[in-house]
Specification:
Layout (H helix, E strand, L loop, with lengths): L7 H10 L7 H4 L17 E3 L9 E8 L5 H22 L5 E8 L10 E3 L7 H6 L16 H11 E3 H4 L5 E7 L6 E2 L1 H8 L7 E2 H8 L3 E8 L3 H5 L1 H12 L3 E4 L5 H12 L4 H6 L3 H11 L16
Parallel strand pairs: 1-5, 2-3, 2-6, 6-9, 9-10
Antiparallel strand pairs: 3-4, 7-8
Length: 307
């Protein structure tokens, strides 16, 4: 997957035809159940492969919390954020030939019917069409976390990406949400979601080590989410303890796309001040807060990217 190129005019035509300007969130995402195309059960591999259109592909996963408190984030991505993300990546070039996958994250331990949803890797308008297929279950529970680690598990075990396998360059993986990290993955949840059971529950730190071999892993904490508003210090502390500088605090959810692009720019070596100066007003403020502790990614002498 991943042929074609992003075309902003095609996006404008698509959203106009689909009447995005007048539809509610749940009219855009009108699924009443998990779409079979996004069901991860039995999926062996999602591939990001080089093509004639994208000879130097670079994989990017954006895993969105789709529980009730986070509907505003996915609405912003659908209306404006996706086009901003794609257009700015093409314009600023933190990575080449982007291949984008969206995931939907729920709460497996709370009994959500669809705690993980996964699109294909795409480079053109097809990713917008797949984004619309996300089922906004609106579940979640009172356990103070969502199943963010399911996204890590899928990325670690069920993706194959040419940017890493051919060029030693890690893909980017962003989970998005307002709650604390998943403490561990239960084997029964993996079996229910993916169709097979590991021998034991999966340790969070071990999984982070595994997924970090080929993915540069970030979590964006949404300050406007109900849980983060209630206990912001707890959310920030838990994620920072786990991910260090790759735990990103976002004050304004409508600036998610700009922050993702800016994070990649800084990690790929663009001067931090130059990144900040390239944005105006409230966007610059959101980017400054989100990236103030972030540093560029180091490379080994062999050219293989490492954390």
């Amino acid at each position: 997957m991943g042929s074609g190129r992003w075309d902003p005019s095609a996006w404008d035509g698509y959203t106009s035809k689909r009447s995005y300007a007048t539809k509610s969130t749940h009219e855009i995402f009108d699924k009443r159940h998990l779409d079979k195309d996004l069901d991860p059960t039995g999926v062996k591999i999602r591939e990001s492969r080089d093509s004639a259109d994208n000879p130097n592909s670079h994989a990017l996963i954006v895993a969105l919390d789709v529980t009730g408190s986070m509907s505003v984030v996915i609405d912003a991505i659908a209306r404006n954020g996706l086009n901003t993300l794609a257009t700015e990546v093409y314009g600023r070039k933190p990575i080449t030939d982007p291949h984008l996958m969206f995931m939907g994250i729920g709460d497996a331990e709370a009994g959500d019917r669809a705690p993980l949803q996964v699109t294909q890797f795409e480079a053109d308008l097809r990713i917008a069409q797949q984004l619309e297929k996300l089922y906004l279950e609106g579940g979640g529970g009172g356990n103070n976390f969502e199943s963010y680690m399911l996204a890590w598990y899928f990325a670690a075990h069920h993706t194959s990406i040419d940017c890493f396998e051919k060029r030693g360059r890690k893909g980017y993986l962003f989970t998005i949400g307002d709650e604390e990290p998943t403490p561990r993955l239960r084997k029964q949840d993996i079996e229910r979601v993916l169709g097979y059971a590991p021998q034991a529950d999966v340790d969070r730190d071990a999984l982070l080590t595994l997924v970090s071999r080929q993915w540069d892993v970030f979590h964006v904490m949404i300050a406007q989410g109900s849980y983060a508003r209630a206990v912001p210090d707890k959310v920030r502390s838990s994620w920072t303890t786990l991910l260090g500088q790759q735990a990103i605090w976002l004050e304004d959810h409508t600036k998610l796309a700009e922050v993702i692009v800016s994070v990649m720019q800084v990690r790929e070596g663009t001067d931090h001040k130059a990144v900040l100066d390239s944005w105006d007003g409230s966007t610059a403020l959101a980017v400054r807060t989100a990236t103030e502790h972030l540093s560029r990614r180091e490379s080994t002498t062999t050219g293989v990217v490492t954390l």
